[in-house]
Amino acid sequence: MTQDFQRIQRLPPYVFEQVNKLKAQARAQGKDIIDFGMGNPDLPTPDHIVEKLVETVRNPRTHRYSASKGIPGLRKAQARYYERRFGVKLNPETEVIATLGSKEGFANMAQAITDPGDVILVPNPTYPIHAFGFIISGATIRHLPLEEGSDFFAVLDRAVANSHPTPKALVLNFPANPTAEVVDLAFYKEAVAYAKKHDIILLSDLAYSEIYFDDNAPPPSILQIDGAKDVAVEFTSLSKTFSMPGWRMGFAVGNERLIGALTRIKSYLDYGAFTPIQVAASAALDSPEEVIRDIRNVYKERRDVLIDVFSRAGWDVPSPQATMFAWARIPPLFEGMTSLEFSSLLLQEADIAVSPGIGFGEYGDNHVRIALVENEQRTRQAGRNLRRFMEEHSEKRKTA
What we know:
Elements: H1 6-9, H2 15-28, E1 34-35, H3 47-57, H4 72-86, E2 96-99, H5 101-113, E3 119-124, H6 128-136, E4 140-145, H7 152-161, E5 169-173, H8 185-198, E6 201-205, E7 232-237, H9 238-241, E8 250-254, H10 256-269, H11 275-285, H12 289-312, E9 325-329, H13 339-350, E10 352-353, E11 355-356, E12 367-371, H14 376-399
Parallel strand pairs: 1-10, 3-4, 3-5, 5-6, 6-7
Antiparallel strand pairs: 2-8, 7-8, 9-12, 11-12
């Protein structure tokens, strides 16, 4: 076979696979790797959700094909959640669709709305599917380079002014993966006005809406803005909120026309998640607030321990206001290294795995992402490993 696969050739090597190979090699050598790399929640799914799954799966009628857009009870549960949490009313028939996680929803929305040559505005750094979902669909990506201190709308203005044709869509992601940046309703109000002025679709990734650490400032939804449904769709996920990553359950909500386009695409591609998972997801969405709060508090405790022990080891990591990640600049001692070089060195010499910032875009290459997925004991061990690592390299520099 000699044919070229042009769509595959547009995809660069997946950076995280390189780190994963190094982790596998280290573990094969018997090393105990403390893994802050992948954002893979390690907490157990709450018991009442698991029990609902078990109860439902015993009914053989639920073993048949399910509904691609999500069973009615699930879509109604998501609408109830949005009304409780954000004060936003959604029509579960036309403004809500269940997805196989927010990642699949994003990728299939890209398939639904993208024509060859369309320009899509994507932050950089950002979660890879935000860009690559559209690249796979044949779009042209115009990156918004968002380094520390950047004025988002000034960067956006320059991108729009230099885009031909006019951009079709803008990706937003707050609380942000990987940077953990948060925004308020004033930001979303400006974004909606901007989108209407320039006829741009807004795609908001709100996967980390419930993992926040300031009780007085829960992250808002873009759909809280009057008129946002005219231009916006929002993606959410149960993966982090209820510690259900392997269940693959998410949602897209908002603009009726865009939800309809995604519904049509998905009707050709899948039959939806296994019905018992959808029933259990409905139970998750109707959970008492303390269920979410307990999970959030675990991440807050882990964040506080990590920031403390890493700081005492010589690496000042900013304390994130939200998400399950810290976004840390490469320590000055290793200035000049790429994020992949630093991540590899940290893994090989300190038995600590992190995600290189380059995996989220070239403007992230002076940072690494640290996931809050190790318990307090393991995090304190990482602090001790890091202290030795920093001291050894400090001594090497002195004697060089």
